[in-house]
Design a protein that fits this description.
Layout lengths: L2 H24 L8 H15 L4 E2 L5 E3 L4 E3 L6 H16 L8 H32 L6 H27 L6
Antiparallel strand pairs: 1-2, 2-3
Helix pairs in contact: 1-3, 2-4, 3-4, 3-5, 4-5
Length: about 170
């Protein structure tokens, strides 16, 4: 097996281990431990709506004007793991990555983090707007709408990334 192929497989294994590690940690993480996800989302929701959050003792954020609470279940960790894996797959499958593959993996993780914050904030604002319009979804419907929102954003982002990385045809 060529050296670059082995290096790519090792990097993919490290990313997979990191994903499993994050999911394992998330099982018992409290809201205050998820601040790296909840604080930026809360700030974006506030910027998008003008509503001010009230930080709660457990690490969550209450938006009285919107009638919502951003807590552990709103962190977006699952989407972060999936988006990182998808972005890394798109980037690492390139034959011209060479020794830049570790940097590409870091860029995939950073891009997935930024996408997670943006999409999660948009999802929360959309759901808060629906609630203000009188659309009160049952918990399963709320989860389904969220899953659709995340899936649509991930599909669009991966297709866009793949398109941006395609080389123009040489004539």
């Amino acid at each position: 097996m060529p050296r670059h192929r082995r290096a790519t497989l090792v990097l993919a294994a490290l990313l997979l281990a990191a994903a499993f590690g994050l999911k394992w940690w998330y099982r018992t993480a409290a809201a205050h431990e998820l601040g790296f996800m909840l604080r930026p989302v809360s700030a974006m929701v506030s910027a998008m709506t003008g509503a001010q959050p009230v930080a709660e003792a457990d690490g969550g954020f209450l938006f009285p004007a919107l009638g919502i609470r951003i807590d552990r279940s709103c962190s977006g960790i699952n989407f972060l793991v999936i988006a990182t894996a998808c972005f890394a797959l798109v980037l690492l499958k390139r034959p011209d990555g060479g020794c830049a593959r570790p940097l590409l993996a870091l860029l995939a993780a950073a891009g997935a983090y930024l996408l997670t914050i943006a999409v999660n904030s948009g999802r929360i604002v959309s759901m808060a707007f629906a609630k203000q319009q009188g659309l009160h979804l049952a918990p399963r419907a709320h989860e389904a709408v969220g899953a659709f929102f995340f899936l649509a954003a991930l599909l669009a982002a991966v297709l866009l990334l793949n398109r941006l990385l395609q080389r123009p045809a040489t004539t």
